[in-house]
Amino acid sequence: MSSILTNNSAMVALQTLKSINGNLAKTQGEISTGKSVASASDNAAVWSISKLMEADVEGFKAISDSLALGESTLAVGKQAAETTTDLLTQIKGKVVAAQEENVDRQKIQTDIEALTNQISSVVGAAQFNGKNLVNNSDETSILSSLDRASDGSVQSSSISFNGQNLTQTAGSLGTGTGLTDLSSNVTASSTTLSSTAVRDDGAGTNADIALTGDFSGDSLSFDIGGTTVNFAAGDLSATAATAAGQIADAINAAQIEGISVTNNAGTLEFASTRAFEQTTVNVTQGGAAAGTLGATTVTLDQRAESFTFSAVNVNAGDGYQLSLANAGINATYVASAGDTMEDVAKGLKIAVDSANNGDITTNVAYDETTNQYTLEIDNANATDDTVTITANDDANDNAVASGRLAGLEGFDVTTKSGAEAALANVETLIQRSVDAAAEFGSVQGRIETQTDFVSKLTDSLKSGIGSLVDADMEETSARLQALQVQQQLATQSLSIANQAPQQLLALFR
């Protein structure tokens, strides 16, 4: 049946043309935008994923900026630490030169002070955008990554490190009700710095050798810290007291450094003024061996008193102070983040030496068995001195940490004792400066690695987003041409279908 009201062929052709035009419009949109998924209506799931990933890409761009800023700041700190190391090395050269007697120590001291001031200038100027990493030990965090979990939550990650306090700040103990006594961390051999020649066990007998009997036919050999004094048979008197006097005279005549002996009614009483060296006396008896020795081995302890620091952790703000009453010395060291008991012991040594008291000398010893550091303090003055130990943790956070170069400004090479103290201490300061530069270098290397990773990760994310939403231009171009042909054919079909009712006019002619 033919109808002039309903043209089914035209309706089919029209729907076909509409479909082709819709596909053609979508294809043209893909070509103009370059995306196959340009909006949520194109593919809601893929569009949602791509937008989250695009947000991550923008976040990583900000992270790249953060890493670049952090790397630049670290580069300034590392350069300051390296420059400080070079200046300290120059100071060491001056200190070594000052060990000679026939040099102008005052001029050397002037050079050291100039280099010391230069170090202060370097440390003070080493800032980038207002951030200085070498005048404090504060923690610094650099945003380094965004971590997205499977549930969609996002957390930031940071590279954290502590500044390296290369200032010459002496430091001060904290105060307040929150302080806890840490004196149990320091064990003192005695809190009295004795002015006597040799420390003993309190009974005064551990450095004595008693002689009894007839030594006239005996041969004796005394090995005193590597120096030997020999007596052949017939050299000594038959009377023990007289023989002891002959032995004492011979040993004293040998002028063994720091060692002396007296005869007390037949008892040899040894004494040592060696500050940091324990000395052993061994006696070998031969010949007739008629005389009797009260001991064949005695040990002369070092004169210095020792302050041993327990192998415990040191927290930032922990402060230690040794006060020497007669010498007028208040040696203080307040720990920064990352310090150890080695830093405390060596820091106190430098603080004591900075007082430049010629009668007070120091040494730091390490016991590998106990992993403990010991600060040894010797008193060469004729008067005993009293040491007061103060040790606090800073619960109220108001302590002032000691700079890692504290005591540098106290170097005084104008005297022999000052030059000797400076030689030992400058090595400690150089090592601290080297450690600071190495720490910065390590963190800088980590940031460089992270920067490279973030750059490659961003590229990978962009590539992933492209694979999801970008249009395949070769395929789209081919589809466009096909749709254009289809559009032309559909238009022709619709035109033919619209002409069908006109054929009915022939029936009325």
From TrEMBL:
<dbReference type="Pfam" id="PF00669">
    <property type="entry name" value="Flagellin_N"/>
</dbReference>
<dbReference type="InterPro" id="IPR001029">
    <property type="entry name" value="Flagellin_N"/>
</dbReference>
<keyword id="KW-0975">Bacterial flagellum</keyword>
<keyword id="KW-0969">Cilium</keyword>
<feature type="domain" description="Flagellin C-terminal">
    <location>
        <begin position="424"/>
        <end position="508"/>
    </location>
</feature>
<dbReference type="GO" id="GO:0005576">
    <property type="term" value="C:extracellular region"/>
</dbReference>
<feature type="domain" description="Flagellin N-terminal">
    <location>
        <begin position="4"/>
        <end position="137"/>
    </location>
</feature>
<dbReference type="GO" id="GO:0005198">
    <property type="term" value="F:structural molecule activity"/>
</dbReference>
<keyword id="KW-0964">Secreted</keyword>
<dbReference type="GO" id="GO:0009288">
    <property type="term" value="C:bacterial-type flagellum"/>
</dbReference>
<dbReference type="Pfam" id="PF00700">
    <property type="entry name" value="Flagellin_C"/>
</dbReference>
<dbReference type="InterPro" id="IPR046358">
    <property type="entry name" value="Flagellin_C"/>
</dbReference>
<protein>
    <recommendedName>
        <fullName>Flagellin</fullName>
    </recommendedName>
</protein>
<dbReference type="InterPro" id="IPR001492">
    <property type="entry name" value="Flagellin"/>
</dbReference>
<keyword id="KW-0966">Cell projection</keyword>
<comment type="similarity">
    <text>Belongs to the bacterial flagellin family.</text>
</comment>
<keyword id="KW-0282">Flagellum</keyword>
<comment type="function">
    <text>Flagellin is the subunit protein which polymerizes to form the filaments of bacterial flagella.</text>
</comment>
